[in-house]
Amino acid sequence: MKITREIVRHVADLARLELGPEEALKMESQLGDILGYIGLLDGLDLSGIPPTSHVQEIFNVMREDEARSSLPVEKGLANAPDREGTAFKVPKVIE
Amino acid sequence: MPLYSETIHSLHEKLREGTVTSTMITQSVLDRISEVDGKVRCYLTVTREAALEAAGQSDERFRKGDVSSPLDGIPLGIKDIFLTEGVRTTAGSRILENFVPPYDGTPVSRLKKAGAVITGKLNMDEFAMGSSNENSGFFPTLNPWDKARVPGGSSGGSAAAVAAGEAIATLGTDTGGSIRQPASHCGVVGLKPTYGRVSRYGVIAFASSLDQVGPLTRDVRDCAIMLKAIAGHDPADSTSARVPVPDYPSLLTGDISGMKIGLPVEYFPEGLDPEVEAPVRKAAEALEKRGASLVSVSLPSTRYAVATYYIIAPAEASSNLARYDGVKYGVRLSDQGGLLEMYRQTRSKGFGPEVKRRIMLGTFALSAGYYDAYYGKAQRVRTLIRREFEEVFSKVDLLLSPASPTPAFPLGDRVEDPLRMYMCDMFTIPVNIAGLAAVSLPCGLTPGNLPVGVQLIGPAFREEVLLNAAYAYEGERGEFPNCKVL
Question: Domains (ranges, CATH) in chain B?
């Protein structure tokens, strides 16, 4: 798998990262190296092998639908970079 | 011997006899921190006043005879990945440099409930991504055995603190070797319990199908005491297992006669550093002397483990780290240009290079058109690796290997070469992929006076077997030299 400048730009955009020109260049070569190494898996015959998403046989864990106490609003907002009333405040979304 | 360099169980004995108080022990550890932390740099935050207050409360309990846990009054350090109510928690990242959690995570609240004294928060690679502590967003912790070398990572601060006498024991996390590799480099005992053994509620997530919490200690008995205190189901973590918790310390008999220990050929590859291989093989012989039998076994898919891990872990990390967006907590680094621009600026300036690399790698592996070729494939290889362990554990009780392919390496040696850094964890990663339990314990020193760790790997939820073999080995090995912080 060849990592191109376009792929790096596209993936950075998906991940909400902005890479400077030098950073992007370095990323291109380092991701290329790592994915080159990961190419080790290419020769494996995996037909009929099911995927493991989780090592334990855990299914949905349910509890009774009853009200419990949760974090008070003030504590929940205490770390917010910006707030208004009882809400998190963010920069303008729609022009 | 100064109080700060003793074990949990020896201090507990003295506390019960009344020859020392928790305040004396805590003061000894805090003084030691003042004396050496400027050189080793284990702590991101030291909680002096809270520690002395907790110690005073413990002394009160001892006076009243109201003590039930061997951890009561014992000063412990906590990796900065565990949420601590009212005490800044950064995960080693600038993006969380101002984050003060509103609650304690379960592992910490269980230690506090046992009466432990928390001395502070320990340095780590940013978001637990790294094997040297050089990826900390603040400063690198140094190896107390040789300050020109790394302590390992990501729980490097936790391992170095135990070695340097800056805590009696510590808590770490292990996603691909982050407890065992630094334990090996710093000459301490480090246990990665079975996936699901310890609750991760209030532990900052890196790779959710791999992360596990565990102790770093001075000996195996301390490790058993710590595990007993933190293990067990927690309704707040649905991945914590409903499996009974044995009384680990009382199961340390040292009797391992008839035990079968496998030496996987893939973990002793050609070209393995002889300074590592020799003490590890000697450890195997010590176990044989104690009545275990050694068997050569093979786990052929081991060679795919690092590649598999570097798809699965970054993929899960890219998803887990999406929450750092400058909205709910942590820093916000721009208010210009609207919401999307704020996200981009905050994340680009807030995360360090290795974290960005892994987010990029994981986002790529999960993105449209590449999912099957990378993430889907890695999940299938994961099945292969798991099956081989299951098969081998039908023949042997435990496996033995080096914990790390090299002793501690010099600072700056690998930081510009990510792939070489990733290879540090080639013997520890397969354990996380299969969700098993493993412990690293010191087995010797190189001619350059650097510790070497031997790893014992056990089946899921059989920590008592693992720890008992480690205990038997420790008895045969004898005292391990204390590190002299220069």
Answer: 3-258+465-477 (3.90.1300.10)
Per CB-CB distance under 8 Å, the chain B contacts of A63 are: 235
Greatest Cα-to-Cα distance within chain A, rounded to the nearest angstrom: 58
To the query of whether residue B154 is one of the catalytic residues in this protein, the response is: yes
Would you say the C-alpha torsion B332, B335, B339, B345 has a positive or negative sign? negative
Residues in A closer than 8 angstroms to B434, CB to CB, are 55
Residue B62 DSSP symbol: H
Give kind and range of the element (H or E) at residue B469.
Answer: helix B463-477
Q: Do B343 and A16 touch (CB under 8 A)?
A: yes
Residue B285, class by beta-carbon neighbours within 10 Å (0-12 exposed, 13-18 middle, 19+ buried)?
A: exposed
Number of domains in chain A: 1
Is A64 within a domain? no
Q: Are B80 and B42 in contact (CB under 8 A)?
A: no
Tokens standing for B2?
Answer: 């100064």
- Residue A18, in any domain of the structure: yes
CA of B368 to nearest chain A CA: how many angstroms apart? 11
pTM assigned to the model: 0.97
Catalytic annotation, pick one of B136, B178, B240, B404 = B178
Which of B100, B380, B419 is nearest residue A34 as measured by Cβ atoms? B419
List the single residue in A with minimal CA-CA distance to B346. A17
Tell me whether residue A14 is in a domain.
yes
Please list the pLDDT of chain B residue by residue as tens digits (486 residues).
999 999 999 999 999 999 999 999 999 999 999 999 999 999 999 999 999 999 999 999 999 999 999 999 999 999 999 999 999 999 999 999 999 999 999 999 999 999 999 999 999 999 999 999 999 999 999 999 999 999 999 999 999 999 999 999 999 999 999 999 999 999 999 999 999 999 999 999 999 999 999 999 999 999 999 999 999 999 999 999 999 999 999 999 999 999 999 999 999 999 999 999 999 999 999 999 999 999 999 999 999 999 999 999 999 999 999 999 999 999 999 878 899 999 999 999 999 999 999 999 999 999 989 999 999 999 999 999 999 999 999 999 999 999 999 999 999 999 889 998 999 999 999 999 999 999 999 999 999 999 999 999 999 999 999 999 999 999 999 999 989 876
C-beta atoms of A58 and B339 within 8 A:
no
Contacts of B241 in chain A (CB under 8 A): 56
Assigned domain for A68 exists:
no
Given B154, B155, B301, B440, the catalytic residue: B154
B328 part of the active site: no
Q: Please, which residues bridge with residue B214 across strands?
A: B172
